[in-house]
Amino acid sequence: MQMPKGVPNLENKFYILRISVYVLKHASRQWFCKLKGTLLSLGYSQSKGDYSLFLNKTSTKITIIAMYVDDILITGSDYKEI
């Protein structure tokens, strides 16, 4: 194993990886599960056509939250809700 460029290794030591790369791959999934639970508890409904789209709709207002990986787009007609 080679040290990345720019990382000093004067004593030729090695480093142990304490977090599995496999765990890091699932971090975004866990984050989405937490966000989904929070939005559903706040009254949002999850779209059946796109699981990453959440809507909160009343007779006069709508709020739309769309998410993709680590990006979130929030839009709607109610400024306070946004």
Low-confidence stretches: none
Instruction: Give a quick account of the main beta sheet: strands, pairing sense, barrel closure.
Output: 4 strands, antiparallel
Which strand order do you get reading across the main beta sheet?
1-2-3-4
Cα gyration radius (Å) = 21 Å
What is the end-to-end distance?
A: 48 Å
Summarize the helix and strand pattern as letters: HHEEEE
Q: Structural class of the helices, strands and pairings?
A: alpha+beta
The number of helical runs is 2
The rough form would be described as elongated
Average residue-wise pLDDT: 83
Helical content stands at 10-25%
Please indicate the percent range of residues in DSSP E strands (runs of 2 or more): 15-25%
Number of distinct beta strands:
4
Protein architecture, described:
It is a single chain. The protein has 82 residues and is α+β, with helices and mostly antiparallel strands. It has a domain at 21-76. It has two helices and four strands, in the order ααββββ. The protein has helices at 21-25, 27-41, and strands at residues 45-46, 53-57, 62-68, 71-76. The protein has a four-stranded antiparallel sheet, covered by helices on one side. The longest helix is centred in the middle third of the chain and has 15 residues, at 27-41. The mean pLDDT is 83.
Helix/strand layout:
Layout: H1 21-25, H2 27-41, E1 45-46, E2 53-57, E3 62-68, E4 71-76
Antiparallel strand pairs: 1-2, 2-3, 3-4
